[in-house]
């Protein structure tokens, strides 16, 4: 009887394989991922160029509005009102154009950043499957890992893989 109980206990222990687990510091991974860094730099440049364009358009319009004010004093009231209405239309048109361009820039940035995040998730998944992990948790700010052994931290290994693939 004791042999049967020991055999059942042994089978139970063998059957309960431990799951291999690790974690990734999401914040550190994204901050160290070269493609994300390059994407942010690219959009920073685009935002700066957009800001300069916006400033120059606003400045040019301001000069035009000041010139109109000077000219309007010498015009007939009806003619001044007509030109003022045209100036207002131009101002609205410029404002709408700038708003559309800014929204397009934001949408493009978000779409490309979402693509980077998808690549990172796929690489983590591939790494886990290739290395026999049952679970890989996300850590960092707002992550699900409150504590983990340094030996279970996969952040650097996955960051290296991602950056090596990005270089190619």
Walk me through what this model shows.
- The chain is 76% helix and 6% strand.
- With 168 residues, the chain is mainly alpha-helical.
- Helix 2 packs parallel to helix 5 and helix 3 runs antiparallel to helix 4.
- A two-stranded parallel sheet has the order 1-2.
- It contains 5 helices and 2 strands.
- The longest helix is centred in the middle third of the chain and has 54 residues.
Low-confidence stretches: 1-15
Number of strands: 2
Share of β-strand residues: 5-15%
DSSP helix fraction: over 70%
The best one-word shape is rod-shaped
Class derived from helix and strand content: mainly alpha
Supply the number of helical segments: 5
H and E order: HEHHHEH
The end-to-end distance, rounded to whole angstroms, is 64 Å
Major β-sheet annotation: 2 strands, parallel
* Major sheet: arrangement of strands: 1-2
Gyration radius, in Å: 30 Å
Write the layout of secondary structure elements.
Blueprint: H1 2-15, E1 21-25, H2 26-32, H3 34-72, H4 77-130, E2 135-139, H5 155-167
Parallel strand pairs: 1-2
Provide a short characterization of the protein structure:
The protein has 168 residues and is mainly alpha-helical. The protein has 5 helices and 2 strands, in the order H-E-H-H-H-E-H.
């Amino acid at each position: 009887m004791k042999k049967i109980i020991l055999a059942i206990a042994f089978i139970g222990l063998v059957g309960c394989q431990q799951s291999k687990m690790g974690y990734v510091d999401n914040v550190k991974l994204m901050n160290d991922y070269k493609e994300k860094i390059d994407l942010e730099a690219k959009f920073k440049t685009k935002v700066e160029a957009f800001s300069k364009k916006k400033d120059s358009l606003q400045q040019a319009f301001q000069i035009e509005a000041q010139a109109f004010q000077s000219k309007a004093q010498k015009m007939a009231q009806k003619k001044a009102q007509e030109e003022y209405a045209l100036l207002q239309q131009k101002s609205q048109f410029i404002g709408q154009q700038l708003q559309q361009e800014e929204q397009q820039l934001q949408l493009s940035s978000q779409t490309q950043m979402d693509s980077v995040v998808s690549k990172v998730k796929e690489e983590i998944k591939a790494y886990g499957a290739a290395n026999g992990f049952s679970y890989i948790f996300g850590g960092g700010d707002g992550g699900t890992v409150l504590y983990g052994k340094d030996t279970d931290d996969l952040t650097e290994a996955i960051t290296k893989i991602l950056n090596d693939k990005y270089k190619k």
